Amino acid sequence: TNTGRTQKFGSSTGGHAFSLKSHGEVVKGFTVGFGGHLHFIGCHFGPAVDPPVKSSVAGKTHGDTQHFDDFTSHLDGKTGLQMTEIRVLHDGNLVFGVEGIYSAGGLQISPGVHVGNEMNHSTINQSISLAGGKYVTGISGRHGDVMDNLTITLSDGTSYSFGGSGGHAFHNIVPAGKRVIALGGGLGGHLHNIFCYYQ
């Protein structure tokens, strides 16, 4: 096993020794054939965890949209990746930006706040802590030309809504049973679009 344990089944010393391995991968399943006894065995290997998958993009892209991607810029290749906090900057009507805080390999990683340049004196920065094993299972909201609302749903069923009620609704970009591990999107004066990586 990955912890160094070995378990032997059967006691015969006959036959020829064999070993089935694939460096850097784990067994995901078996193929076997049998009659009165086990005739053959094969292994199917794969990554130790499912690789991150990029979600669909909610929102629009304009000529002045500046893209950001926390996963490709700071997190790709890191082990034990988790989102530990998510912050949303909004003024009660529109969303100006987001920030993800992450941990990987025992270290905190902060790619920085991604925020548009049209913030006003009413803009607030609200934070959701993902302590105690909680994680993000939903990103939905509303958008027109810019992001009007972001609604973040957690694994415990709690939802937080940021921004206003304008624009058109978009549905959860996170598939059922998956957790968000990184954020990405596009900015101008406001948040133009958002996507995520999930596992």
TrEMBL record:
One Pfam family matching this protein: Jacalin
SUPFAM superfamilies listed in its UniProt record: Mannose-binding lectins (SSF51101)
Annotated InterPro entries: Jacalin-like_lectin_dom (IPR001229), Jacalin-like_lectin_dom_sf (IPR036404)
Gene3D superfamilies: Jacalin-like lectin domain
PROSITE patterns: JACALIN_LECTIN
UniProt domain Jacalin-type lectin: residue ranges: 1-47, 52-199
Protein name: Jacalin-type lectin domain-containing protein
Protein source organism: Euplotes harpa
Source lineage: Eukaryota, Sar, Alveolata, Ciliophora, Intramacronucleata
